[in-house]
Amino acid sequence: MPDSLQIAIVGGGAAGCFAAIACAETLGARGRVTVFESSPKPLAKVRISGGGRCNVTNARTDPRELVAHYPRGGRELLGPFHRFGPRETIAWYESRGVPLVTQPDLCLFPVSDDSASVIECLLGAARAAGVELRTHCGVKHIVHHGAGFSLTLASGETFAADRVLLATGGGKGLELAAALGHRIEPPVPSLFTFRVADARCAQLAGIVIEEAVASVPGTRLQGAGPLLFTHEGLSGPAILRLSAWGARELAGRDYRFSVALNLVPPLTTAAVVEKLNALRATHGRKQLHTWSPLELPQRLWEQLVAASGARPGLAWAEAPASVVQSLARLATASEFPVSGKSTNREEFVTCGGVSLREVDFQTMESRRCPGLFFAGEVLDIDGLTGGFNFQAAWTTGWHAGRAMAAAGK
Ligand SMILES: Cc1cc2nc3c(=O)[nH]c(=O)nc-3n(C[C@H](O)[C@H](O)[C@H](O)COP(=O)(O)OP(=O)(O)OC[C@H]3O[C@@H](n4cnc5c(N)ncnc54)[C@H](O)[C@@H]3O)c2cc1C
Question: Is 153 near ligand 1, meaning CB less than 6 Å away?
Fold first, then answer.
């Protein structure tokens, strides 16, 4: 088949496999799709994702709402999401025998509750479409010449391709993109938890605040949602969101900064003072230590009261204004010193990657190197937790795969 189109996909992760299927199904007998995967097994991250359950996507199907969950890449993904977003992803999986279920937090998981069903589906679809999947096959170099590309594998073997998709995730694959003329935004971690060397956190380990706001004083960075105190420090969606929006800035500070917590949002310090003063009149005989009027967990409330300077046994009617003021500040703006980051085991991603200005988001083709395409985390795109990162991989993979097949030889 001398005129057959050779498509090389570098990386057998979520984006690479999804692109390979979209490409091979569009291409049919006009060409051949080969996936090169350096590790022994494809889709390794899918297997461990979402604690082994795989949070496939999110029920926020409106592209405008969806893009607000991407600290980097949201603007560029708006158009691609209109053409292939969560709705199309759900239909894609369900039509191939993987029904999904929506949790109350709008995250979608396979009904099987097992990431293996997503992997089997992708590998089965790839096989059926005629994709060749080569594992233990790392790509070391890619050279672009007038007529196409020459790939050199770790084994020394070379492979000629008309089009190449880079879907290598973060890490070394970025060197391949840089060698082909692309600007790389420096990779730094996103979606991490905060290490806090402060006895207050350890004392509160295990306590969850259902709705809190974490912010970095002096910046506009903040994250809202459930907050978890741990032996190591602070965790939970509020912290993960703050870490994602602040990934670059917090790396620049070497993960040493102050985090302020509002434990009773949307109340401000002044609003809490007003609320507590009103209680002095209506519940004056109750003791500060034993009754939390802010609906905070008792262990946390006791810590705030102790820190406010209130003497044991103090009744609300006798509470001095300074104690009320102090309690209100502690509930709305307690500061903790962050001294480092820890890995969130459920999900983490890399912020940074191939600069988005150099990619055409209609096709995912490079603006610098014709015939070169990108999909997934290799791009400077990352989302919050909740299925947004896989959605970016499915969307960019689908567009890249179709575009690679559509262009004639
Ligand atoms: C523990 C964990 C849990 C997660 N859970 C979720 C979740 O539930 N929902 C969600 O939306 N996101 C989740 N994520 C994020 C999600 O896994 C990634 O965003 C997604 O996997 C990115 O897909 P990708 O194909 O771009 O990259 P990857 O999945 O990283 O795949 C890239 C592939 O390329 C291969 N490769 C790299 N270099 C080369 C080379 N030179 N030659 C050949 N092959 C190469 C790698 O071996 C790898 O297999 C999780 C991440 C982690 C770490």
Answer: no
